[in-house]
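Structure first, sequence second, as always.
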């Protein structure tokens, strides 16, 4: 029997890091998403510390990195995307307390 066969494959993926409990605590969100020229990166911090926002392409190459200082509570960082082309990216936020990633689409 040499006919064509079709297989369904189901994959469950999870980003590496400290896990879902940590993501719930820091509440990392990107708005708007999809974005055009800029995106607001929102996250919670437990204290004042340094942070870095990095943008990676789908191959994992770091294309952009900016840093600042958090305040305790909600933080909003305005990230300019003019230097990036349309596509799918990963935005990563690193602070003393956590590292978290989210997918970003630029249109």
């Amino acid at each position: 029997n040499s006919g064509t066969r079709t297989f369904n494959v189901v994959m469950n993926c999870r980003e590496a890091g400290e896990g879902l409990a940590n993501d719930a605590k820091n509440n990392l969100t990107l708005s708007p998403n999809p974005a055009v020229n800029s995106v607001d990166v929102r996250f919670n911090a437990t204290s004042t510390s340094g942070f870095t926002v990095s943008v990676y392409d789908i191959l994992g190459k770091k294309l952009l990195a900016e840093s600042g200082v958090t305040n305790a509570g909600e933080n909003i960082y305005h990230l300019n995307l003019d230097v990036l082309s349309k596509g799918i990216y990963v935005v990563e936020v690193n602070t003393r307390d956590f590292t978290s990633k989210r997918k970003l689409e630029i249109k």
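Margin note: The mean pLDDT is 84.
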